[in-house]
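Dig into my protein:

:::
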Amino acid sequence: MPSLAELVRVSRPATWINTAVPFLFAGYEHRRRVDGRLALGTLYFLGPYNLLVYGVNDAYDYESDLRNPRKASLEGANVPPDRRRATLRAVVLANAPPLIGLAAIGGRRATVALAATSAAAVAYSAPPLRTKERPVLDSLTSALHFALPAACGYVLAGADASEIPARPLAAFVLWGMASHALGAIQDVAYDRAAGIGSVGTALGERATALALTGLYLGSGALLATTGPEGRVAAVGTLAYAALGAWVLLRPDEDTARRAWRSFMGLNLLAGAVVTELLLARWGLQAPVPFLAVAGGACVLATAAALAARRLPPREGRLGAAQAYLAHGGRERLAVAAAGNVSVTAGLGAARLLAGAAIPALAALAIGLRRREALAPLAVAGGLALLRRRR
């Protein structure tokens, strides 16, 4: 059985918050309070769910991941064939209990939603479907990995089908598809070498960049029809579309990698803005239960990301970890850590935690000597001051 540290690395802790927060926000949007089911669901979509998504992915992608410098790092891990069965067993053991518990609490609709979410996670990487090798379907399935947790949040909060807002979720799916396509462009050379089909290898770099730019704009158009908060968020999608246009003008691997790093940084600002919009919509000033769950999730994710970075490289990675660091792995770690704490500040933690969190992360950024970590800190600090003055 893999160690807990290895399973944490496989689960991509730097991205945990991307699935936990949509679940929590959606559930709170409908229920307007945090109870045991939302707390349990947030914890599930924080860790075990990501182990399901990425554990299955890494178990079936060993050969191709060895050729990709982004793997065997915070953006991926290598699971050798002789460890595949043990890893998959750990995935089942980590996911079955919370899924059964959530299904029992939420009833039939929750069972269906959770089953669909788990099925999409497995179908992306595991045969026979393995949608990650089916162009366009790969981007759609990847987007569902983040949109379906939000749908589960609504369902577990007691919403029926008519109460789940279709347009914001559809916009989220379009945004997720575009983001997957942006990431796929930087992996075109590695995927072609491994014989893996993807939206990037099928359409080519330029056509993929054109398509993802259109998807970002489509996402913004949908958001603009959802009310004042949606219109503000729609403006933000123009920045994402600009990343697609950048790659469209220079469709090469280096530009795609730089655009992807910019995408990760942009997510921090976008996440903080969306959080502030929702806090204003909900009329929250000191949401202690909400803060405890959301802030705790961010802190756990950051701690896990930092712990995963300290794990020694396993044999058989063929220098992939070193190549990853050469391609900016330390900068991404700083951005991920800053992002998690920036989101914590945006959730209202500024009033209670900013005095400790922001200086602590500033020390981390200085220690890593990476300027990329300072911009999210400035955003978080600015939002904290604005909310304190209100």
